[in-house]
Amino acid sequence: MSFSSCIASQIGFDLLKQGIKVRGTTRRKESANALLNGAYAPYQNLVEIVQVPDITLEGAFDEAVKGVPFTPTNLPHITRSDPNPFPSKPSRFPPIPIILRPEIVTTSIIHTASPLSYALTTHSTTVSIATSAALSILNSALHHAGPQLQSFVLTSSFAACNDPSTSLPKTFTEDDWNEWAEAKAGSKEFGEMDDLAKAKVLYPASKTAAERAVWKWSEEFS
Fold first, then answer.
1. Cα separation of 176 and 188, whole Å?
2. CB 23 within 8 A of CB 48
3. Is the pLDDT assigned to residue 48 strictly greater than 50?
């Protein structure tokens, strides 16, 4: 997890409170100091920080994904319906929380990093980065995580399935994709938009493209 993000830091905090050892990534180790000296201070013996300067590079997560077995303490007895991180019939909305039986030493990878800023107005700074980062951590997990890896969690978004061009009323499900954003980001019209309008297209396009890439990868390697 990228501890520099709001979602990842909260997930890490929730896991630490359950006695689970957590390894998180940051572009610079110093950026995690606020967490380590703040909310994470009582759990520093359970926290490890790995510096990953560029999440898009192949092999960027090789060291970060190497197994971190934890000693379960006071964990709830929760079992996942399918411990295979890439099941034959996966769901975009898997059961949560994803915690295996506490008597099993295990490792899970939670990927939450994704570019989000209204200052990002190009395909290369959003869609390409989100997709490359997701595939980079999957490939690192495949080759370096080891047999103790039991689950992989991708933080996607409603933006990946909410297609604003769809006629309403409409109930969106995991079978839906944001086809509109992907098409708009690659259209001639996109180049004529102002920066704010571009950013509003690129974020859902990046979440859609990254999740599609993850499912395609899982089908290839399942």
1. 25
2. yes
3. yes
pLDDT number for residue 82: 37
- Tokens read off for 34: 């606020």
pLDDT at 106: 52
CA distance 50 to 29: 7
Q: Are 51 and 60 in contact (CB under 8 A)?
A: no
- What is the three-state SS of the chain? CECCCHHHHHHHHHHHHCCCCEEEEECCHHHHHHHHCCCCHHHHHHEEEEECCCCCCCCCCCCCCCCCCCCCCCCCCCCCCCCCCCCCCCCCCCCCCCCCCCCCCCEEEEECCCCCCCCCCCHHHCHHHHHHHHHHHHHHHHHHCCCCEEEEEECCCHHHCCCCCCCCCCCCCCCCCCHHHHHHHCCCHHHHCCHHHHHHHHHHHHHHHHHHHHHHHHHHHC
**Mean of per-residue pLDDT scores for the chain:** 82
